[in-house]
Amino acid sequence: MFRSLGIVALLSLGAAAAHAQATPEQVEKLVQAIVAAGCVVTPDNNATILSEAGLNQESASVVVNALLGLGQAEIVDGDLRLKTAECN
C-alpha cells in the first residue's frame, strides 16, 4: 500500500492533511471499495479503488490515516489490509 495509494505521501502530507478529518461517508466509500477489491489495496488495484470510492489521493490519505488510527486497517508488506468484520 505504501507503493499504491501513495501511502508514504499520505502519511507525510503535512499539517493541513494531518488536521483534516475523514467524514463517515468518505470512510464508508473507501471501505466498500476496498472490500469489493478483496480487502487489500495493492499497486495493481489502487487506482480502481480510489476511483470507485470517489476520492483523490489527499482525501484517501485522511481516510487511511483514520482507519489505521482506529485499528481497522494495517500495513502488511507494503499493502493496506482492512481488519473490518467483512475482511476477517
Explain the overall architecture.
This protein has 88 residues and is mostly helical. It has a single domain (7-87), classed as Arc Repressor Mutant, subunit A, CATH 1.10.10. The protein contains five helices and three strands, in the order αααβααββ. A hairpin with a 2-residue loop joins β2 and β3.
What order do the helices and strands come in, and which of them pair?
Elements: H1 7-11, H2 15-19, H3 24-36, E1 40-41, H4 46-53, H5 57-69, E2 73-76, E3 79-82
Antiparallel strand pairs: 1-3, 2-3
Keywords: Signal
Signal peptide: 1-20
Query: What profile does the largest beta sheet have?
Result: 3 strands, antiparallel
**Radius of gyration (Å):** 11 Å
User: Which stretches of 5+ consecutive residues score pLDDT under 50?
Assistant: 7-17
Q: If you consult CATH, what is the topology?
A: Arc Repressor Mutant, subunit A
Assign the CATH architecture: Orthogonal Bundle
Keywords: Signal
Signal peptide: 1-20
Keywords summarizing the entry:
mainly alpha, Arc Repressor Mutant, subunit A, 3-stranded antiparallel beta sheet, 5 helices
